[in-house]
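WARN retry 2 of 3 for item q-0093 after timeout on previous attempt; input resubmitted unchanged.
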Amino acid sequence: MDRVALYLQDAHSLDDGIKFAKYAEQKGFEAVWQAESRLVRDAIVPMAAFAAHTTKLKVGSGVINNWTRNIGLLASTLLTLDDLAPDRIICGIGAWWDPLAANVGITRRKPLSAMRETVEVLRKLLSLQNVTHSGEFHQLDGVELDVIHGRTEARNVPIYIGATGPKMMELTGEIADGVVLNYCVPPEYNDKAMQQLEDGAKRSGRDISEIDRPQLIVCSVHEDRAKAIEGAKTLLTQYLAQQPHIAQASGVSSDIVDKVQKILGWPASKDQIIEAMKYVPDEFVLSISATGTPDEARARVAEYVKRGCTCPILYPLGDPYLMMDAFAPSN
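OK item q-0093 returned
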């Protein structure tokens, strides 16, 4: 694998995240992606920190949503990040998910139309156009980004859509620079995803080769295989209960999901997670993640690459340094 990236969520302190990003750059990693999903950690502040402490590493949002930031603010935020790290910022954006969105008062409607409109307007703003747009989701009247400090030319901030479902995957193939393929899915999930991306690409006269396809992959590496499985199971149990779209894409039986959801609250307590983990088979964990010894994890990630992933985005469970050493392109 000549391309590999690091994924950070909320399992580590920001100080540690900066150290991991610097180490990833030293080891030849291409990018660091910062999550923004549950109401734990915003993506933008860590992205700025990673960008300020590195010189070559690309920095992506993995992913922000298209509902909670006004389109003007979103564009100016990305412009500011690009000022900090020119040509190193990637906008990963997704449609968010329920019940979290509904719980904070966001009504997600027409997600495909909303995403299409967001990408269209965002691109125009980042190209420093004067934008007038009267749409269903965004209304702008002669709006353009003010550049007081920094470059006055169009900004190179590629837009990647975090797509999971088939219709969003097709839309991504049609309009986006890339896709952020989801984690907690088996490698064979990619087969249909590649076809959906290709179908969408054809609508805009493109080929799938023109669409970058990095993929989030849960990566639990330990010399003791049993400990690696336990570490991955802790995380995956929570995802089965709290993110229905991922549970559906993972292929796990509805019986397991029902049992886990009945136990876990929001947020889930440690005791609830331990109790629910009993219902999650080891085989399931191994089927939707790169878990095990370094050699086993590398072999599993290679399966995702064979099925269309262009750059694994590895979410380290356990020792991040051990994982980065195991996957370093510079090795």
